[in-house]
């Protein structure tokens, strides 16, 4: 597996992956995803296996030395194969180089596999946000101090 920085030609593939990974109301539109990736202070990385995109992560630098993980997506056939963990490692290495103190993310309240994954990496639930997603689903905010 290889992880490399995002390039503009990746956008369509990442959009399709996001649509496959998340239900309507949670998945991002093409414009939303492009906006998050293009935001000042944002970074994105793409995971490849046999030259095929199998996952990606988008993170944004926020005030007060906080990194916000906007999304992490791994295709169905590559979950639980170390792709997500490798992407999160790249984010944490970047955050440390940027002297960030905290990484945060939101995950759907009913997405227990994601919550278990983040917990295994040292993230803890700190706040529940009712109606966070456009489909009305609640989210957990999870954080990791660096």
Q: Tags for this entry?
A:
single chain, 7-stranded mixed sheet, 4 helices, Aminopeptidase, 146 residues, alpha+beta
Structural notes for this entry:
- The protein is of the alpha+beta class and 146 residues long.
- It is globular, with a radius of gyration of 14 Å.
- The longest helix has 15 residues.
- The mean pLDDT is 95.
- It has 4 helices and 7 strands.
- It has a single domain, classed as Gcn5-related N-acetyltransferase (GNAT) (Aminopeptidase, 3-Layer(aba) Sandwich), CATH 3.40.630.
- A 7-stranded mixed sheet has the order 1-2-3-4-5-7-6, sandwiched between helices.
Structure class: alpha+beta
Main sheet makeup = 7 strands, mixed
| Number of helical segments with 4 or more residues | 4
Q: What would CATH call the homologous superfamily? A: Gcn5-related N-acetyltransferase (GNAT)
- Sheet with the most strands: spatial strand order: 1-2-3-4-5-7-6
Provide the CATH topology.
Aminopeptidase
The CATH class label is: Alpha Beta
Strand content: 35-45%
């Amino acid at each position: 597996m290889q992880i490399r920085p995002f390039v503009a030609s990746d956008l369509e593939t990442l959009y399709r992956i996001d649509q496959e990974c998340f239900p309507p109301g949670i998945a991002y539109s093409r414009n939303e995803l492009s906006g998050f990736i293009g935001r000042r202070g944002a970074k994105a990385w793409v995971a490849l296996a046999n030259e095929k995109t199998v996952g990606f992560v988008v993170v944004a630098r926020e005030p007060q030395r906080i990194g916000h993980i906007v999304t992490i997506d791994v295709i169905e056939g590559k979950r639980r194969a170390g792709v997500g963990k490798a992407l999160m490692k790249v984010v944490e290495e970047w955050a440390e180089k940027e002297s960030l103190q905290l990484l945060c993310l939101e995950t759907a309240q009913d997405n227990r596999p994601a919550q278990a994954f983040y917990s295994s990496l040292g993230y803890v639930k700190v706040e529940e946000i009712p109606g966070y997603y456009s489909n009305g689903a609640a989210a957990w905010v999870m954080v990791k101090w660096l």
